[in-house]
Amino acid sequence: MELTNPTRFQMFMLAAVIPLSGAAGHAAAPDIGDKAPAWRFLQGTDGLLHSRKDLDSSEILVVAFLCNKCPCVKGYEARFKRLQKEFGPQGVTFVGINSAIGPLENMNEMRRRAADARYNFHYLFDTSQQVGRGYGATSTPHVFVLDQNRRIAYSGAFDDNRNESLVKHHFVVNAVSDLLARRPVAVTKTKQFGCAINYR
């Protein structure tokens, strides 16, 4: 779905392409309106294996690609938790997936990160990187909002500023609110920013 009569700000966000190393392979990433890739049997920090079908009862899914080392992710953790707390009762589920590689990207560090930050959402390890590749995730955090039919309704940044006090545009919160109200999502795509996801 393309933006209709986008504002100057929206056009800027769509055009502000910042090259990131480690592009997500050669396969074409799904676009807005496409069916979102599923995942199966990803290990979570809770010790269980998780599949997307386990969340079929959720009205909306917010899928964020995270990692342990990225300061940008750490700066957003409170906002992620707040989204889950505020919208969870309305059928929205936030899921964090780690597709990154590196010394700190392992299950022990994921458990430590989830415990230290008191995650109130599932944090799953994509050891094969297939889920990250499937979504075309390029940075942490890279956020996707999936609608009631599990089509991608929004892709990009959580909001427009790492400094929460300076945020003017709440992309993910607004997309979730639009979907819950059965309205078309006003802004469907922005440029994600953060630490690059490198693929093997």
Question: How far apart are the termini?
Answer: 31 Å
Mean pLDDT over all positions: 90
Q: What is the count of structural domains?
A: 1
In DSSP terms, counting alpha (H) and pi (I) runs of 4 or more, how many helices?
5
**CATH class category:** Alpha Beta
- In this structure, how is the largest beta sheet organized? 7 strands, mixed
Low-confidence stretches: 1-26
If classified by CATH, what would the architecture be?
3-Layer(aba) Sandwich
* Percent in strands: 15-25%
The overall strand count is: 9
CATH fold-level name: Glutaredoxin
Helix-strand sequence: HEEEHEHEHEEEHE
Multimeric organization: single chain
Instruction: Indicate the structural class.
Output: alpha+beta
Rg (C-alpha, Å):
16 Å
Shape: globular
The side-by-side strand order for the widest beta sheet comes to 2-1-5-4-3-7-8
Describe the structure.
The protein has 200 residues and is α+β, with helices and mostly antiparallel strands. The chain has one domain (8-13, 34-196): 3-Layer(aba) Sandwich (Glutaredoxin). It is built from five helices and nine strands; from the N terminus they run H-E-E-E-H-E-H-E-H-E-E-E-H-E. The chain is globular, with a radius of gyration of 16 Å.
Brief descriptors of the model:
5 helices; two-stranded antiparallel ribbon; about 200 residues; single chain; seven-stranded mixed sheet; about 25% helix; globular
Question: What's this entry about, in short?
Answer:
This protein is α+β, with helices and mostly antiparallel strands and 200 residues long.
